[in-house]
Amino acid sequence: MAAFTERMASVLLLWLAVCLSGTWAVDKGNFKTCDQSAFCKRQRALKPGESPYRALLETMELTNTRLTLQLINDNNKVRLLLELYRLQGNITRVKINELKPLKPRYEVPDVLIREPPTEPLSLLSQDENGVVLSLGAESQRVIVSARPFRLDIMEGRDVLMSLNSRGLLAFEHLRMRKDTFSYKVTSTVASVWDNIKRVFSSQADPEGEKKEEADPANQAETAKEEEEKVEDGMWEESFKSHADSKPSGPSAVSLDFSLPGVEHVYGIPEHADTLRLKTTDNGDPYRLYNLDVFQYELYNPMALYGAVPVMLAHNAQRTTGIFWLNAAETWVDISSNTAGKTVFGKMLDYVQGSSETPQTDVRWISESGIIDVFIMLGPTPKDIFSQYASLTGTQSFPPLSALAYHQCRWNYNDQKDVQEVDAGFDEHDIPYDFIWLDIEHTDGKRYFTWDPHKFASPKEMLQGLVEKKRKMVAIVDPHIKVDSNYKIHNEIRSKGFYIKNKDGGDYEGWCWPGSAGYPDFTRADMRAWWASMFAYDQYEGSMENLYTWNDMNEPSVFNGPEVTMHKDAMHGAWEHRDVHNLYGFYVQMATAEGLIQRSGGVERPFVLTRAFFAGSQRYGAVWTGDNAAEWDHLKISIPMCLSLGLVGISFCGADVGGFFKSPSTELLVRWYQTGAYQPFFRAHAHLDTPRREPWLFGPENTALIREAVRQRYTLLPYWYQQFYQAHQTGEPIMRPLWVEYPQDPATFAIDDEFLIGRDLLVHPVTEEGARGVTAYLPGKDELWFDVHTFQKHNGAQNLYIPVTMSSIPVFQRGGSIIPRKLRVRRSSTCMEHDPYTLYVALNPQRTAEGELYIDDGHTFNYEKKEFILRKLSFTKNILSSVNMAPDAQFSTRSWIERIIILGASKPSKVTLKTAGGQESQVEFEFDASMSVLTLRKPGMNAGVDWSVTLQ
Amino acid sequence: SWQFLLILFVFLKKAVMALTRFFCSSLQERQFYEEGKPFTCLDGSRTIPFDRVNDDYCDCEDGSDEPGTAACPNGSFHCTNAGFRPAFIPSSRINDGICDCCDTTDEYNSGAACQNTCRELGSKEREIMKEMAEIAKEGFLLKQQLIQEAKSGLEEKKAKLAEVQVSKKDLEDKLEALRTVKETAEQPEKEAKERHLKAWEDEKAAIRLEKDKAKMAEVFLELDDDADGFVSVADLLTHSELDPDSDGSFTEAEAQGLLGGVDKVDTAAFESVWNNIKEKYVSESNADIPAPVETPQEETREPVPENDSEQYPEEDIPEEEEDDDEEDEDEDPDDGDYKVSPVRISIRFMKDDHEFLFNLDLHFVCRNLEKEISFDFGPGAEFAYLYGQCYELSTSEYIYRLCPFNRVSQKPKYGGSETNLGSWGKWTGPEDNVYSLMKYEHGTGCWQGPNRSTTVKLTCGKETVVLSTSEPSRCEYLMEFTTPAVCQEPQSLYPDAHDHTEL
Known about the structure:
The complex is a heterodimer.
Chain A: H1 2-11, H2 13-19, H3 38-45, E1 53-62, E2 66-73, E3 79-87, E4 91-98, E5 122-127, E6 130-134, E7 140-145, E8 150-155, E9 158-163, E10 170-171, H4 181-200, H5 208-214, H6 216-225, E11 237-239, E12 242-244, E13 253-260, E14 264-267, E15 286-288, E16 310-314, E17 319-324, E18 330-336, H7 343-352, E19 359-366, E20 371-376, H8 381-392, E21 405-407, H9 415-427, E22 434-437, H10 458-467, E23 471-475, E24 480-481, H11 487-494, E25 508-511, E26 514-517, H12 524-532, E27 546-550, E28 570-571, E29 574-575, H13 576-579, H14 583-598, E30 607-609, E31 621-623, H15 631-646, E32 652-653, H16 665-675, E33 681-683, H17 698-714, H18 716-729, E34 734-735, H19 737-740, E35 754-756, E36 760-762, E37 772-777, E38 783-786, E39 792-794, E40 797-802, E41 810-813, E42 816-820, E43 836-841, E44 848-854, E45 868-875, E46 878-883, E47 896-902, E48 910-914, E49 919-921, E50 923-927, E51 932-936, E52 946-950
Parallel strand pairs in A: 21-22, 21-33, 22-23, 23-27, 27-30, 30-31, 31-32, 43-47
Antiparallel strand pairs in A: 1-2, 2-3, 3-4, 4-20, 5-6, 6-7, 7-8, 8-9, 9-13, 10-13, 11-12, 13-19, 14-16, 15-18, 16-17, 17-20, 18-19, 24-26, 25-26, 28-29, 34-35, 35-36, 36-41, 37-40, 38-39, 38-41, 42-43, 44-45, 45-46, 46-52, 47-51, 48-49, 48-52, 50-51
Helix pairs in contact in A: 4-6, 9-10, 12-14, 16-17
Chain B: H1 2-20, H2 27-30, E1 39-40, E2 47-48, E3 76-79, E4 87-90, H3 118-223, E5 231-232, H4 233-237, H5 252-258, E6 264-265, H6 267-278, H7 297-300, H8 305-311, H9 319-327, H10 334-340, H11 342-349, H12 356-374, E7 391-394, E8 398-403, E9 407-412, E10 419-427, E11 437-441, E12 453-460, E13 465-473, E14 476-483, H13 490-493, H14 497-502
Parallel strand pairs in B: 12-14
Antiparallel strand pairs in B: 1-2, 3-4, 5-6, 7-8, 8-9, 9-10, 10-11, 11-12, 13-14
Helix pairs in contact in B: 3-11, 3-12, 11-12
GO molecular function (chain B): calcium ion binding
Keywords (chain B): Coiled coil, Disulfide bond, Endoplasmic reticulum, Signal
GO cellular component, one term (chain B): glucosidase II complex
């Protein structure tokens, strides 16, 4: 009800007053710049130069699986321990920690799917300047230089990547606070002790240095040496009205990476920015710090809801990747020696042959934790995906229905509303699979409950959806209303599961319910308990067709610094500072586990999350948060999801229509047309916006939206197969062109079009009133077929395509076979047994291939080999279906009703041969104008061997 | 196992063919599907052998070759639904596992366990239809009455308005005449009054001067403590209130200053320094100095029009009008009139006149009547009876109140102030049924949202009640309201209700 928000308004006055001061853009003042974040300011003040770090080669230990050696900072004598691993699959892991930290430093758990298996390292050569190690095959070596310390990874004569080449390795060791009493005592004792030592030792003792390092008194001395460097913000800092007590003092880590020959870097989501990352010399670094940003602004490096500290670097020869495993606030600086050059300047360099190699330099800065970095050496983009997948896992394989259309709104008001919207889709013959309930469905924002008036009989409502073979998602956020009459709160409190504030009490912050506690999801026992709350007998009113949405899990704290949690809140022994970017990851992990457990491990879960981290792909889908109904937001959805796909998170989407504000009809239609070709396809709208169910914009627009949604449904077999592939390989589903055409520099910066898998090229229309778009069709040997007209185009060209409101340009690659189900029904489940139409698009060699994957669509039985995987190939005028998984068992009622061959010539006869050797003639039609051959009703089962011969 | 499936498939194909004979197309269309003869797609696009009709493959662009299967994306399926209403459903609903036709014919091959519910639905529908017909019949009768009443009511009102307008005119004329008389009569009086005023002012000034002099003498005596005929610096110093800078120390120099720079003054010189002293002087006997300013002016002041409305207690103005004035400020041309109308001026002018209250009444009666008559109460003014009425609905949280042609509001049940959900805007039904929807607009503004508004959906009912309210979009309310005024003549609604029972 309207009155609700007005109550909210008074409750959140402070927050809102700042946020809503009349403009639609984000209030940047609510979020820190690098200068306002003490460690970033401190670290960024260090300029490239000679590193104070030296490798102590005499401390080197090399075992079969790892190399360790100590580094010393010549300025303060603090020692670090470097560990170097060669991991299976062409990955090098570099770990740097303090040799003897005052107390343990945080190392991120649970993100890696296992301790990565290693491969042997061997010593190639060694002298006083450094060591050379072999990285296994392909003449790859790592050179450890001692003075100053740096690492260079080489292949043959080429340097692939250098670490600390700019001397920006910085490691703020943990130390005692100087202005406290205990420090003064220690430091006095230390100087006395120091003097005594000097008297008694006339010359340097080779052991002495080591002993000194181990001596606590010496630690203090070290600190003293740095005394003049003490800056504001080391031991406490404040932002706006919020103080950060920083009990551990400065603890930042930083390292630079040089990428010779690289001009294009990607990744490190989540930012509302272009696919190709920009240099940051003239502004703030890209920031990774999960934040609930109200009305975010486009094309800037500000942090958003999620963080994946993975960067890809690409040139025409090679793709490499850097995975910086650190969950604290992180900033990434990018600079390039060619960034400032004009095209002409670059050309001049080329002609003169005198140019320095283009190079991109990257620098990572994190507030706490250790340096733990995985260097993925490719060399192809797909190698990078599999290397990263071997570390953090692949995209979870969702239920098929989750790939269909989702209808959401804040809020569907009550059961009657849900029923009417459901009926509206049937009345207007628009398919949908999921209807969503936002926070208003709960009893006073107490998650796991239902509003007793508006949703008095949830099971009845869910049963109504079951009868239509449809499903529902209800929101469950991680902030828990502090209310002694609320079971969930009482249990969490009594079990001590809440995050604690710096003084040891339960941390409380403001969120939707008012005062709320935040369960400590970093605890395995907390997560297990949370998962158990999704059991059907715990979560009252839930049923098999109810799934979950985790919002506000950055975590969002309305009255906290930067609308999130205080960094000095405590997760057991660790500060929130150390684990911040992991919180949302854990929330989704625990929720997905709950959905699996409630079915006894049978059913695949579906959980949508707003906050995420590396590895979140294992637990479900993400969306790009609270966007707005503006053309630029439609446009940015492409690079935002592409960036996520590159770092493993394929199941990505943006709110169709835009969350804030109200879209024009044209924008809404264009957004449906785009969303229909993005992995997670959900319409969503803010509480304050007018209703926008697809049929509210006149019959003409209803028809346009219906057509867009139907196109999605016809392609569900292809989408499902893409998710199966992504689940197997970690490859992105929605992928930038350069991933498939890595040697074509024209593709490197394209982010207004994209591929789905290898075979569909999509160029959304993101301009108001557009009459045409110019699409780049990649691949000089490729053919591309317009999926609407079957018009054939050559690759490696920019093509102007006139557009109307009826559709956006989509092309099928020549050489591919795409299965579709053309009998679109009211939900994907209704289409389970329907027949397939195969779209065979021939390449210039008149061949094509594709796959067909079929399983039950919703259980984990595919892990027990209950599926069908067929290889479809067309060669020498024979189209055949071959079993790619002979050890798998599954049967389907679906059959092949039609085969459409694009770019074909007219045959005289078409013969179908089935496994038993039976032959039959297949009728066909040939459209000579478009060279389209349609085989009528061959009729064979989709799961068996067959071949069709054109004569 | 594929062989088995193939056999199954062949069997199904036959089953489908067999079924074709029994349903899949409506009676009207069945003639086109003549067994054994080539079939021409209904759009004429092509002709196919008859064995391709309903063979689970779409041959016709218009979907007409597959009236009994889901093969065509744009096809439709005919449910005979014996015992109920026949219907067309999209062919995508054939064999999707969901029972759509009450006769179960859409799920002939999905394994869905559908029950034939046509008879049940039919009898239920007939019951409802009967009930609705009854309602419509009674409602329609009521509507006729309403139209009659409205007609006479309207005539009455028009007559009354005319009458009131006449008497208003009369009164205005009378008032005008009276005013002229009064003004004429008052002119000499006014002049006399001015003369009187001037004399009074002069006299008053003289009296004031007199009083001042007396006072001065009195003070001189009081101050002259030693009765030597002089007021000296020492005499003054006993009156610390005279300290010119009020800094707590009254010095001799300051006292001297008050006495014009000399040490002492006699009565004559005292007169010249009296002005320095009289303002602050506090009598030793502490007797109050009478306030010198007193004028008869206030009593004779003419009423200032701007202040006029304050002088009329608000209760004099009926509340409804008050609301209207605020809400319709921009639209209501009466408003301007209201402020400067001669009637009102006359009322102000003849404030003491006993007739003024009656006159005021007349004004509003007149305005209300004009307003009421101007409303669109439907073709037969059948909605006129709703005017001036209010209807309430109580939900778990709120009490909703609909006052047709006026406003909609919402009041929390357990305390809290009322929220305006919109004031009467207009009829917004579709062209062929304009009087089916009412729109109330410009209600209380929503935080970060639009002004509240309400759409009232009117359906036929014997009674006039609010059935339900909802807020489909934030701050856009929907209210369902029954009234006999929208009841249609029953015959036109269900022409052959009896025929259906035969099916």
